[in-house]
From TrEMBL:
PANTHER family: PEPTIDASE S49, PROTEINASE. Belongs to the peptidase S49 family. SUPFAM superfamilies: ClpP/crotonase (SSF52096). The keyword ATP-binding does not apply. This is Signal peptide peptidase SppA. Residues 1-28 are annotated as: Disordered. The keyword Transmembrane helix applies. The gene is sppA.
Amino acid sequence: MSDDRWTEGPEVSSGSVDPIPGAASDDAETLRERQRLAQLEMMDHWIGGVLTEQRRTRRWKLFFRLMTLAIVLAALFTTFYSLFWDSSDVTAPTQRHLGIVNVSGVIASDSPANAERVIRGLNRAWEAESAAAVVLHINSPGGSPVQSQRIYAEIMRLREQGDKPIIAVIEDIGASGAYYIAAAADEIVASPVSLVGSIGVIYAGFGFEEAIGRIGVERRVVTAGENKAFLDPFQPLDEEAEAFWQGVLNQTHRQFIDDVRAGRGERLSDSPDVFSGLVWSGEQSMELGLIDQLGSLEQLSRERVGNTDWVDYTPSLDAFERLTRRFAQLAAEVLGVSSPNTPLRF
């Protein structure tokens, strides 16, 4: 032990050891000062966070205000452009051409393929002196019987005047109400693989009367008229109501058949399948007399005017109308309230 250098030297008592520097100064006043400084630091940090959040909020408010202003300005510009600069009349070229009227998509009063728009296009193309023919450019699965009948009647009216031919050209599909429209034309042209026909009437619905009982929900319907709610999906459809509704469909189908026969005349085949609701290819339709020629819009244009020259006379939808229409459709789909204006469909 005597050789241990750590134990060598004079013994020092514990009372003679100097205290830790600064330890004695850590009195109550110093602690309070430290607490105050810590609180101030926390306060500064909190205030900085609040200011940052306020700046972020102001930036978002400014962004949304600018977006709102941009939308308003775009709407105003579109409105003034359509009123003062965008003429609703197409300036027809002097050379001979085909006057095109598009029937695209579902035929309905609230869709681009509505009767008012198509009829306006028909008359504009009919009145164009340099238009060698009026061409209904159809790509539609059908739709509203009323809208289809309105267009059909207008085509027949123009056709009776006999000033220029009205020709229907079917692209991918010209079925049901779309074929109803095409039947009024002087001629119908389709591709060999186009879908044509579907001369029938359909009503589709659901019956939830058992499901609603299983989940314990009571259906409350109050009507004036004993048959007012006969198509309510939560009530059974009895035989009498079903027979009545079938009579409505049969009568509508008969009107469809009569108008197709009036438009096509003796060109139609006598096959009973023609009016059965079946859809046919272009080649099959040719054999059944549903169409007159296999071809395309380009081929028709070369035959009629010597080149592929045509002008679209379909009234345009302005940008704001397209935007609002699309927004309304999306809102209806999200809310689950999208439905046709009529339960019957061609």
